[in-house]
Amino acid sequence: MSIEAKLTELGIELPPPPPAVAAYEPWMRTGNLVITSGQLPWCDGEMGFAGRCGEEITEDQGYQAARQCAINAIAQIKAAAGDLDRVRRIVKVDGYVHTAPGFRGHPQVLNGASELFNAVFGERGHHARLAIGVDEMPLNAAVQICVTAEIEDYPIS
Fold this sequence. Notes:
Layout: H1 3-9, E1 27-30, E2 33-36, E3 42-43, E4 46-47, H2 59-81, E5 87-98, H3 106-121, E6 128-134, E7 143-151
Parallel strand pairs: 5-6
Antiparallel strand pairs: 1-2, 2-7, 3-4, 5-7
């Protein structure tokens, strides 16, 4: 099954890749690697999940925020690769959770992204991961992820 068909089966319609909000590129490539900049939980051009997990945001809402970040990252990877079937592997996910003091559910929140990558890409979605809690986040986002993906036969232009 193609990745696009898998997304459809999961009821996911990829949004346009979110534009950069400052002086950086939304993704970069080097050789066969695509590296996304930090992906926030944008939903229809608006911050879908704002606030600190364990305060304004529940752990479950944090999970949904991480899932939305992953959807946006997949849109960036598609923009970089042209075709999601060229994704050989999701190599690494760096996850940052905007947390209230004492919140320790970082891994469970970031499972929202990890489980989506696994569902969409199967074995190729299994990845290494970093989970960090932070006191402040750009635009008050609940979660931010950066993704490194390996692409098959990636032409260097």
